[in-house]
Design a protein that fits this description.
By secondary structure, the protein is α+β, with helices and mostly antiparallel strands. Helix content is 37%, strand content 18%. The chain is built from 16 helices and 14 strands.
Length: 430
C-alpha cells in the first residue's frame, strides 16, 4: 500500500560497477569492502553525524563466509556507532530494493527516522562449492583419529572431488523449475516471437545511452574506490564504446544451443558493486537539517510464473498505477532493470498485448508499450552490469539523477526477480 508518511531520499551513492574478469579470477573487492567504501564516501559528504542513523539495512545475495550479516560489517567498518543495529535481507535480484522497502516500513511504523540502506554484491567472488561426495570425504578425513584411519581415507580420494560446482551458476538456476535465468529469457523470445536483431539492437542502445549520459547522469552517482594495491576505479568498466550491431549478432547463444537468441552480449554482465541510500522521515529531516532529493511514495511486489520471470516488473508497477490512479502519461521516466534485453522487450510486448493486459494484468484495456525515449534513458544493466543486490538501489538512484537532469518530476523503477517475482517503486523528485 501507499505509505501513509512521506519517506524521503536524502542522498545516495554507488561504486563503479566492475565486470567479472574470467581470465584474471575474482575481482579486487569483496562485497563488504565495496559496501564500506561506498558508505564512507556517502557519509563523509553529509553535514550530520553518523550517530543519527537508527538502522542499517543492506541486501546481499553472495556474502563471503566471514561477512554473513554484511550490513553489520559495513556499519562497523564505516564508523557508524556500534549501538546502531544492522540487518541483511535477501530477495534475489531485488535484495537491495527489499532493503529500501524494509526501511520504508520501519519509518512508516515509527520505529526509525533515518536509515542507511541499499545493496552490495561481489559476484566475481562467489564461492566454488564442493560436491556432496567431496564434502563427505573431507569431513570423514578430518574426523579420522588414527594414522591408519587417515591413510585409509586418503586412499579413497577421487580426482573428481576437486571439480567444484560454480556457485554463481547454481545461484542463477531456478531450484523449482530447474532452468537458468537465461532460459527464462529464451521463453519470452518464443512467447513474443522476438527476433535476434531487435534484441541486439536494444543491447546496442543500452551501451550508447550509457556512454551518452556518462558525465551528466552516471558520474555524479559514483565515488571512486581503491584496492589494496592503490589502484583506483572511478567508472563502470562494462560499457563498450566499440560495440556494434555486427559484433553483437556474431556472438553465439549461451543457453539454448545452437539456435537460441540469448548471448553474453544481450544479457546483463556479472558484476561487482554497491549502492547505498539515506532514507529519512519528515521528523528526520528536522534532525538532519537538510533538504531531500526525492520522495518514495510506494513500493510493490508481485509473484508470477518462474518460467517467465522477466515479466515481473510490469506485474509490480501496474498495481501502483492503479492504486494511485495514475495514467501512463503521469509517469515522466521509467526504469526496467535490464537483466536481459529480451526480458525488457518482452515486458513491452506484454504491455502492448490486449489479451495479456486483460487476463494477466487484470486491466480493462491495452496499456501500450512505454515510449522508448522515456525508458532506461541512460542505458542499463546490459552496459553497466548487474551486481544483483546493488541493482534495485542503482536504478532508483539513477532515476533521481535522470529526473533532475531532465527537469522532470516523477519516475517508476522496476526489476525482475529470480524465482518469478517483480518489484517496483514510484518516485517523486522534491
Amino acid at each position: 500500500m501507499k505509505s501513509k508518511k512521506p519517506i524521503y531520499v536524502i542522498d545516495g551513492n554507488r561504486t563503479p560497477f566492475l565486470k567479472a574478469q574470467s581470465k584474471t579470477g575474482p575481482g579486487p573487492f569483496p562485497a563488504a569492502e565495496l559496501g564500506v567504501q561506498c558508505a564512507k564516501s556517502l557519509l563523509l559528504r553529509q553535514k550530520f553525524d553518523a550517530s543519527v542513523f537508527d538502522e542499517i539495512i543492506v541486501g546481499c545475495t553472495t556474502p563471503s563466509e566471514s561477512e554473513m550479516n554484511i550490513a553489520r560489517v559495513i556499519g562497523l567498518r564505516s564508523g557508524i556507532s556500534n549501538t546502531t543495529p544492522a540487518w541483511t535481507v535477501h530477495r534475489n535480484c531485488a535484495s537491495g530494493l527489499q532493503a529500501i522497502d524494509s526501511g520504508l516500513q520501519s519509518i512508516s511504523l515509527g520505529k526509525s527516522n533515518v536509515i542507511l540502506c541499499g545493496g552490495v554484491d561481489s559476484l566475481s567472488q562467489a564461492p566454488l562449492l564442493y560436491t556432496k561426495s567431496a564434502t563427505k570425504w573431507f569431513a570423514q578425513l578430518n574426523s579420522s583419529k588414527t594414522l591408519a584411519e587417515k591413510i585409509k581415507k586418503i586412499i579413497e580420494f577421487r580426482p573428481q572431488f576437486l571439480n567444484p560446482v560454480i556457485g554463481i551458476l547454481k545461484g542463477l538456476t531456478d531450484p523449482v523449475e530447474g532452468i537458468n535465468m537465461g532460459q527464462t529469457a529464451e521463453n519470452l523470445v518464443k512467447k513474443f516471437k522476438l527476433s535476434r536483431k531487435i534484441i541486439d539492437q536494444y543491447s546496442l542502445q543500452s551501451h550508447k545511452r550509457a556512454i551518452q549520459f556518462e558525465e551528466s547522469i552516471h558520474s555524479p552517482q559514483i565515488s571512486a574506490i581503491f584496492d589494496n594495491h592503490g589502484n583506483g576505479y572511478s567508472k563502470d568498466d562494462g560499457v563498450r564504446g566499440d560495440i556494434s550491431l555486427e559484433k553483437l549478432m556474431s556472438l553465439r547463444p549461451v543457453f539454448d544451443k545452437p539456435d537460441g537468441n540469448i548471448t553474453a552480449g544481450n544479457s546483463s554482465q556479472i558484476t561487482d558493486g554497491a549502492t547505498l541510500l539515506i532514507l529519512s522521515s519528515e521528523e528526520g529531516l528536522k534532525t538532519l537539517n537538510t533538504d531531500p532529493l526525492a520522495e518514495i511514495t510506494q513500493i510493490h511486489w508481485a509473484g508470477i510464473d518462474p518460467n517467465e520471470m522477466g515479466l515481473g516488473p510490469i506485474h509490480a508497477f501496474m498495481p501502483i498505477l492503479l492504486q494511485q490512479k495514475l495514467k501512463k502519461s503521469d509517469v515522466d521516466l521509467w526504469e526496467i532493470n535490464e537483466a536481459f534485453a529480451a526480458q525488457v522487450l518482452g515486458c513491452q510486448e506484454a504491455l502492448n498485448d490486449n489479451s495479456y493486459c486483460k487476463h494477466e494484468l487484470n486491466i480493462s484495456k491495452t496499456f501500450g508499450e512505454i515510449d522508448n525515449e522515456l525508458l532506461n534513458i541512460a542505458g542499463g544493466a546490459i552496459a553497466i552490469g548487474h551486481p544483483v543486490a546493488a541493482s534495485g538501489p542503482r536504478i532508483l538512484l539513477n532515476m533521481v539523477h535522470s529526473l533532475k537532469n531532465k527537469k522532470l518530476k516523477t519516475g517508476m523503477v522496476s526489476i525482475c526477480i529470480g524465482g518469478g517475482m517483480g518489484g517496483a517503486a514510484h518516485v517523486k523528485l522534491c
